[in-house]
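Subject: two folds for Thursday's group meeting

Dear M.,

Sorry for the delay on this. The cluster queue was jammed most of the week, so I only got both jobs back this morning. I'm pasting them in the order they finished. Each block is the input sequence followed by the predicted structure tokens. Could you check whether the formatting survives your parser before we put anything on slides? The first protein is the one we discussed after the seminar.
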Amino acid sequence: MRLGAGPAAGGWNGMARTPAGRTETLRDLAENLLLRAAIGGALALPRRWRVPAFGWLVSRTIAPLAGFRERIRGNLAYVLPDLDAADVAALCRDVPDNFARTLIENYATEELREIGRRTPLTGPGLEAMEEARAAGRPILLLTGHFGNYEVPRAALIARGWTVGGLYRPMNNRYFNAHYAATMHRLGEPVFPRGRTGTAGFLRHLRGGGAGVLLIDQYFRSGAEIDFLGKPAPTALSAAEIALKIDALLVPFFGIRQPDGLSFEAVFEAPIPHATAVEMTSAFNAVLEEKVLAHMDQWFWIHRRWKPERKRARKQPRNASGPGVSAGAAKSG
């Protein structure tokens, strides 16, 4: 299943011009229809039933078919090899459950706004944010795919803030079309990553606005910064933007509460300006602390580390030997 964040806008050129591309397109269409049907059916239920039911449905049926459990196990084996087998099995159920709850919560935009109004805002970053807002200083809010990352934005919007966002479109462009619309409905401005979108996001920040970035996914050309004890290629873009426009850089998290339906929006102390690598390392450390405290709320389905690519890059060019085709060597 191709629901992870994918190429920037414009990255689909030529998709349908090869047999593999046609197969991929048909698969994406089928997955989109299946999920649209599940989402539509779930939205007909009251929230107190809908959210846990959709979490159960995805966790018990879609997650095993989509390979989510194998990916979760692989990530856990790589960074936490001594984790108890029972805990691994529980996370294979609970991580897709939180993912699905977040997904269906974000589709019900009016309810999400109400959740935001009821969600308490806590943390040492709030005072600094208010001071920056009063001074017209840009505020860059930084988080990961943890809890429900849209709830804090909804909570700020409910309190009169204008909070923009820059997002990376999902791999499945058909699903992305309606999922991205939920971000726009919650509050503008929202921009897809790409030259035009990034420029619009920067204009919003330079005007004294606040904006959200998520940087906890594998970024091929990123800096190798430790996350959960292993080097994880990480985008430096958030820190680079903060340095370029003198933005306040504040880590934040929408932490799901034990009832599975309510949240706390936590705004951590701002990250001091230093080098981009140092600032990004500081964010990774804050995120790591939250992940270890709430293991089921981080999106372990992402291929965050991809150690196999690192091993492949270290192999000499002729490692495949004369009997292996160039295409086969490249694919490895």
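Second protein, same layout:
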Amino acid sequence: MDYAELLQRLTINDPRVEDGRALAPSVLAPRTLALVRLAALVAVGGSEPTYGAEVDAAVGAGASADEVVDVLSAVVPLVGLPNVVAAAPKVALALGLEPVEGLWDDAAPGARPAGTRAAPTDAREPFGR
């Protein structure tokens, strides 16, 4: 189905899109799709386990930790800073960091806070928890 037909079905709330049968993304690359899904998760205020799954999917599809975090910056103008602030600790945990209030305040630029793990350099490996 081409984009115009899918858009028309969505516009009229066609029953064939209700259960997702006609909604499987077919054009977006897996990495892009995973980052888009992460952005949507920030917008709707997803749960911590969902962030873990989506971050793992993004990294598994080739996204770097920098790209995952950049999604947060990119969506601030659209979803608002409070939504991004609420999502940040969930993303940090999904990346293997321990977000603790005040822990990063005095850290030198580029330094990793004590008690945190470095994100893997190979983005194909899932992050540990």
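Two things I noticed about the second structure. Residues 30-44 form the longest helix (15 residues). Residues 28-94 form one domain.

Cheers,
T.
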